[in-house]
Design goal:
The protein is an alpha/beta fold and 312 residues long. The protein has a single domain, classed as TIM Barrel. It contains 12 helices and 8 strands. Strand 4, helix 7 and strand 5 form a beta-alpha-beta unit. Helix 4 packs parallel to helix 5, helix 7 runs parallel beside helix 8 and helix 8 runs parallel beside helix 9. The longest helix has 21 residues. It is globular, with a radius of gyration of 19 Å. The chain binds dihydroflavine-adenine dinucleotide (FDA).
Length: 312
């Protein structure tokens, strides 16, 4: 995890309209372009192709049609229709049926009831087709409402759904008990957003310590949890804890992001652990891409090399 200043800087860049326009124009066009390392492409066909390449390496996948913070119901409806088309395309393709989405992509900022309706439309198409649908966790103003919507749908009988908890937030250890009591699946992450100290740990060591505590809890009491991290120390802790407590390798999975620590993904597969790669795609890739750059300063050098290499 990177320091706060870098997270803040990229948080600001992520909201720059001018940069977003420039990036959309140049970022993905060339097959070797800089955004391609982290984003599988702009179309579902490209995402399916990337997914097939991962499956050939015995990796599992979760497709994520990028998009967030939509400001009109028309855009939210369009995103919902796009998701339905993704479900159909994935079903036809024969790749694994597993998707992730964000509630602000479905209109949560505009009207909660419409966002829930949109999510229900997606679940109505996805569940009978055997999909698992993970609701990503956005920044802390959305934690309560995301968990509340998740619990409502769970009570209504949707079972092929899961949620995400961020160890950076003080509240998450309590939320973990609440979600585990439902019997639902949790993806445990550190948290990708810059958060105030009133709600979140501010140092890497505190976030890591909370991650380690939550990981032990979720491995012992959770329901097929996802340990989503690229942090070697956390992964080693998980393996060690699972071994010590006789938790078989197929009772949980590791998850990592497309293009990040591919070496580690493959070494875990070789050791017999299920590893799922989160495969983001779509035209709205800029905020996601900025979060990835903000996580690791070395990525900026990678982008600069790619830009200079392409133009030179
Ligand atoms: P940490 O940031 O400490 O990094 C550990 C090591 O991993 C680094 O030293 C580096 O080697 C490598 N690394 C990490 N990020 C990298 C990058 N961008 N590029 C290159 N190397 C990198 N967050 C959230 O708030 N809501 C969500 O719904 C999700 N969903 C999600 C799904 C999946 C499958 C994953 C893996 C992650 C998320 N995240 C997320 C993101 C998560 O919160 C976190 O920001 C990143 O995973 C980075 O944190 P690490 O746990 O990898 O540790």
């Amino acid at each position: 995890m990177v320091d706060r200043a870098s997270k803040t800087f990229f948080h600001l860049l992520a909201h720059s309209g001018v940069l977003k326009k420039m990036a959309s124009r140049y970022g993905m066009r060339h097959p070797t372009s800089f955004a391609r390392r982290f984003i599988a492409g702009e179309t579902v066909e490209e995402a399916i192709e990337a997914a097939r390449a991962l499956e050939a390496k015995r990796l599992h996948l979760a497709l994520d049609l990028l998009g967030e913070s939509v400001t009109s119901l028309d855009t939210a409806d369009a995103a919902t229709r796009e998701y339905l088309a993704v479900i159909d395309a994935v079903t036809r393709s024969g790749i694994e049926r597993n998707i992730s989405l964000k509630l602000t992509q479905l209109g949560l900022d505009v009207d909660k009831a419409s966002a829930v309706d949109n999510l229900r439309k997606i679940l109505e198409r996805a569940e009978p087709a055997g999909f698992f649908v993970r609701i990503d966790m956005e920044n802390s103003p959305y934690t309560d409402v995301t968990l509340e919507i998740f619990e409502t749908l769970w009570q209504q009988g949707y079972r092929q759904i899961g949620v995400v908890l961020q160890s950076a937030l003080h509240r998450s250890e309590r939320d973990l008990q609440r979600i585990t009591a439902l019997g639902a699946r949790v993806r445990l992450v550190k948290g990708a957003y810059k958060e105030p100290k009133s709600v979140a740990y501010q140092t890497k060591s505190d976030v890591d310590a909370a991650y380690a505590r939550m990981m032990r809890t979720v491995l012992s009491t959770g329901h097929y949890p996802a340990i989503a991290t690229h942090d070697r120390a956390m992964i080693d802790l998980a393996r060690q804890f699972a071994r010590q407590h006789n938790i078989a390798a197929d009772r949980f999975e590791f998850q990592m992001l497309y293009g990040v620590r591919r070496d580690l993904q493959m070494s875990l597969v070789k050791e017999g652990y299920p590893v799922r790669v989160y495969v983001p795609f779509g035209r709205e890739w800029f905020p996601y891409f900025m979060r990835r750059l903000g996580e690791r300063p070395a990525n900026i050098a990678f982008v600069m090399r790619a830009i200079l290499g392409e133009s030179g």
